[in-house]
Amino acid sequence: MINPRVQIFSGNATPALASSISAFYGQELGKSSIQKFSDGEFQPVFNESIRGNYVFLIQSTYSPTDNLMELLMMIDAARRASAGYITAVIPYFGFARQDRKDKPRVSIASKLVANLLTVAGANRIMTMDLHAPQIQGFFDIPVDHMDSSAIFIPYIEKLNIEDLTFASPDVGSTNRVREVASYFGADMVICDKQRKRANEIAAMTVIGDVTNKNVVLIDDICDTAGTLTKSAAMLIDKGAKSVRAFVPILF
């Protein structure tokens, strides 16, 4: 196709974000709709030609089930409508916490999602703050993994916090927090937690000294806030002067 153009479409999960992105890009949001059936099925429909064009499909996968299925069907519909290049923009990548077999007889769901997106017809994935960065390796197509630190680091700089220390709410977030602490030339501590089960913490200890420090907790996701609140309480109990939290994904 001569002079293919960019078209931006939204799923049901992210209409406000998609509208903002489209407006920033300087064009109207693409026309699409969802047909719903009485048995609960639905069918995404593009209401304009996308043949040969660069198509961006913006859809978060929270809640993961219906929104993920809707995204997969949008990708499939775009492929069957002869879109030239399909980019799935996924602000929140659902099932990212299931990135390995941590016990017998469980699924590696994030790998399954990567397979589904690829088979559906996506040419590229854009997402941010993956719970486990190695999920990028589950894909055989390009993945643009964006980092929210580009937003909150300048904000922290403007606060001019004295006696600054960064805290990781668990061992898994250590690398993410270490990079930020290194940027500021600050110390870091780790809140080491042991879980009874999902969303329930059995015990937690602080590795490092936070006495008379202003602490910034950095985590990638917050659903029940159990980890954040328990970490903050323990840091204060260990002598921290204040505790702030920066989390890009909140439920």
CATH class of the largest domain: Alpha Beta
Distance from N terminus to C terminus (CA atoms, Å) equals 42 Å
- Number of continuous helical runs: 6
- What's the CATH architecture name of the largest domain? 3-Layer(aba) Sandwich
Q: What pattern of helices and strands is seen along the backbone?
A: EHEEEHEHEEHEHEEEEHEE
| Rg, alpha carbons | 21 Å
Summed up, the domain count is 2
Strand content: 25-35%
Unreliable runs: none
Order of strands side by side in the largest beta sheet? 1-4-5-6-7
Largest beta-sheet characterization: 5 strands, parallel
Determine the structural class based on helices, strands and strand pairing: alpha/beta
In the CATH hierarchy, the third-tier topology of the largest domain is known as Rossmann fold
Mean pLDDT: 91
What proportion of the residues is helical, as a percent range? 25-40%
Which outline best applies? elongated
Number of strands: 14
